[in-house]
């Protein structure tokens, strides 16, 4: 089995992550709280399905959840 190789994040990648992490925090989300992140995702999808939130918001929701889950995984493991 080949070892996985990771590349160093570019400054643009780091900024994208920081922006989405901060955006998630503006909703009161914390990367260590996986349950709250999941609830945010579920409630956002439900709101979109019921016309209470714009379907265009779905991409931002997925990005926020992905960044927060990634931060959660890194914080709870030795991936850093």
Q: What report would you give on this structure?
A:
The longest helix is centred in the C-terminal third of the chain and has 19 residues. The chain has 80 residues and is mostly helical. It is globular, with a radius of gyration of 14 Å. The mean pLDDT is 89. Helix 2 packs antiparallel against helix 3. It contains three helices and no strands.
What are the salient characteristics of this protein?
80 residues; mainly alpha; 64% helix; 0% strand
In short:
By secondary structure, the protein is mainly alpha-helical. It has helices spanning 11-26, 34-49, 57-75.
In round numbers, the mean pLDDT is: 89
Structural class: mainly alpha
How many beta-strand segments? 0
**Unreliable residue runs:** none
Strand content: under 5%
N-to-C SSE string, H for helix and E for strand? HHH
Helix content: 55-70%
Produce the secondary structure layout.
Layout: H1 11-26, H2 34-49, H3 57-75
Helix pairs in contact: 1-3, 2-3
């Amino acid at each position: 089995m080949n070892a996985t190789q990771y590349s160093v994040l570019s400054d643009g990648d780091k900024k994208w992550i920081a922006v989405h992490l901060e955006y998630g925090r503006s909703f009161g989300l914390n990367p260590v709280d996986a349950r709250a992140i999941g609830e945010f995702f579920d409630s956002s999808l439900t709101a979109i399905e019921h016309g209470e939130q714009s379907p265009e918001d779905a991409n931002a929701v997925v990005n926020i959840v992905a960044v927060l889950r990634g931060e959660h995984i890194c914080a709870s493991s030795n991936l850093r």
